């Protein structure tokens, strides 16, 4: 499983680097309504992936692995995650890749994320009772069952999302097509990961942060053992993505030690101390919010969206709402 996780993580990193959606300027660009590359990649990946996975499940090659709809956890976690993502300019997966490219603020985000993971792990025995109600794992297949009707519905859902991506691209008057190929690649990558001969699981990221943090401080409580099995292979998945970020940036020639990116200087300020503080806070919020909701951009929005999981769709709505609202008020220089 280690080799498989490294390999798939490397492909994951290559796809994100190819479309540049790991870049601070791209993510923060979405927060200020200037660049919608991230939205287009996610919509394309979820749309195509939902069709692929429904066919995969129908053929008996995989099974749905849907995150439970823990109502307050998903809603509050989505809000916290969206705020953190806007401030940090990365999500748990992209900050690992950007760190490999020399982005110091991404390294600070990782540090903040490890602290966020550790704090959540310590608080879990006390707050787990307040994250409900737990309505269980619900997705479209819960009501349509696995069959032709589910496949048709998944294809219609997919066509709608991919169409939205192309409409956004048309309105942006962009001729760049990398977002489409990256989304297509992520859809196939997730379908591949779910096969029994691979990970037998959709791709995920944020679980690795509390897992690694608990290992570092050598404190293995209730939450550590809850996530230990997944945290192990996700760590290697992220390691593969890190290697991809480093290799890709070296090949492309854009590896650079950077703290203040163009958009931070343009929309926020040119103060290094400010960026350090906000990167730490953003990293903390991103991981803490992801753990409240039991998933992040990769595990919830991407993987859960491809399975048309209700918890993931609700999480996505609250993430995007808080992300755009935070971006509107946080980046106010121009």
Explained architecture:
It is a single chain. α5 packs across α11 (222-252). The protein has one domain (2-330). The protein is mainly alpha-helical and 334 residues long. The mean pLDDT is 94. The chain contains 15 helices and no strands. Helix content is 73%, strand content 0%.
List the helices and strands and how they pair.
Elements lengths: L1 H18 L4 H8 L5 H22 L12 H18 L3 H9 L3 H24 L12 H5 L3 H25 L5 H16 L14 H10 L4 H31 L9 H6 L4 H22 L3 H10 L3 H21 L4
Helix pairs in contact: 1-9, 1-11, 2-4, 3-8, 3-9, 3-14, 4-13, 4-15, 5-6, 5-11, 6-10, 6-13, 10-11, 14-15
N-to-C terminal Cα separation, in Å?
48 Å
Shape: globular
DSSP strand tally = 0
How big is the Rg? 19 Å
**Percentage of β-strand residues:** under 5%
The largest pleated sheet is described as: none
Q: What class would the helix/strand composition place it in? A: mainly alpha
> Average pLDDT across residues?
94
What assembly state would you assign to the polypeptide chains in this entry?
Answer: single chain
Number of domains: 1
Secondary structure tally, helices: 15
Helical proportion, percent range: over 70%
| Poorly predicted spans | none
Q: Which H/E pattern describes the elements?
A: HHHHHHHHHHHHHHH
């Amino acid at each position: 499983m280690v080799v498989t996780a490294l390999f798939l993580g490397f492909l994951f990193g290559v796809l994100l680097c190819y479309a540049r959606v790991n870049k601070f300027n791209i993510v923060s660009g979405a927060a200020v309504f200037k660049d919608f590359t991230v939205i287009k990649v996610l919509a394309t990946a979820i749309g195509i992936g939902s069709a692929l996975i429904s066919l995969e499940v129908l053929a008996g090659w995989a099974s749905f692995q849907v995150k439970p709809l823990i109502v307050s956890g998903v809603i509050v976690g989505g809000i916290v995650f969206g705020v953190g993502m806007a401030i940090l300019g990365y999500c748990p997966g992209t900050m690992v890749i950007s760190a490999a490219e020399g982005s110091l603020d991404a390294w600070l985000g990782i540090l903040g994320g490890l602290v966020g993971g550790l704090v959540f792990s310590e608080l879990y025995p006390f707050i787990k009772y307040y994250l409900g109600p737990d309505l269980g794992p619900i997705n479209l297949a819960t009501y349509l069952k696995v069959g032709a009707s589910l496949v048709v519905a998944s294809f219609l859902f997919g066509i709608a999302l991919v169409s939205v991506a192309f409409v956004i691209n048309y309105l942006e008057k962009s001729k760049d097509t990398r977002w489409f190929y990256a989304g297509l690649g992520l859809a196939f990558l997730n379908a591949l990961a779910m096969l029994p001969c691979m990970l037998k699981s959709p791709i995920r990221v944020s679980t690795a942060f509390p897992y690694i943090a608990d290992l570092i401080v050598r404190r293995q409580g209730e939450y550590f053992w809850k996530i230990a099995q997944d945290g192990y292979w996700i760590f290697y998945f992220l390691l593969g993505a890190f290697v991809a970020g480093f290799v890709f940036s070296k090949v492309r020639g854009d590896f650079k030690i950077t703290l203040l990116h163009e958009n931070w200087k343009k929309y926020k300020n040119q103060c290094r101390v400010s960026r350090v503080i906000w990167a730490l806070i953003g990293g903390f919020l991103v991981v803490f919010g992801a753990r409240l909701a039991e998933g992040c951009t990769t595990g919830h929005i991407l993987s859960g969206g491809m399975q048309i999981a209700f918890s993931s769709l609700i999480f996505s709505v609250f993430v995007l709402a808080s992300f755009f609202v935070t971006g509107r008020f946080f980046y106010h220089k121009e």
